[in-house]
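Reminder to self: tokens first, then the designed residues, so the page reads top to bottom the way the pipeline ran.
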């Protein structure tokens, strides 16, 4: 059974930074495409960033140049470094691989 456990969310001021982590278990992590999604109140869940097993990445236009997805296969962990955070980045962030979702971690950007 695949499990994804996110951490690192919290409250941050506009312009600040956070790093989210997602630890995976029950799968051959190095072979999996991993992604981060966000879901703001009243909105659909949307892709933020994706990283393939080979390390190729893609990002939503809204976060390009501000967010960086990376992975550490030795630790079975994928990260989302979020810089220059904006009010509109406030959302629950979910870790995803095609056979499982994490439980989500809240990110709140507020002054």
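Designed residues (111 positions):
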């Amino acid at each position: 059974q695949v499990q994804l456990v996110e951490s690192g969310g919290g409250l941050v001021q506009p312009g600040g930074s956070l790093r989210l982590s997602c630890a995976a278990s029950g799968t051959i992590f190095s072979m999996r495409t991993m992604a981060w999604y966000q879901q703001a109140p009243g909105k659909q869940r949307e892709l933020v960033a994706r990283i393939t097993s080979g390390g190729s990445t893609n990002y939503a236009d809204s976060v390009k140049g501000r967010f960086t997805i990376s992975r550490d296969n030795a630790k079975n962990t994928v990260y989302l470094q979020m810089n220059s955070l904006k009010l509109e980045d406030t959302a629950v962030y979910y870790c995803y691989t095609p056979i499982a979702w994490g439980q989500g971690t809240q990110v709140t950007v507020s002054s």
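The first strand starts at residue 3 and ends at 7.
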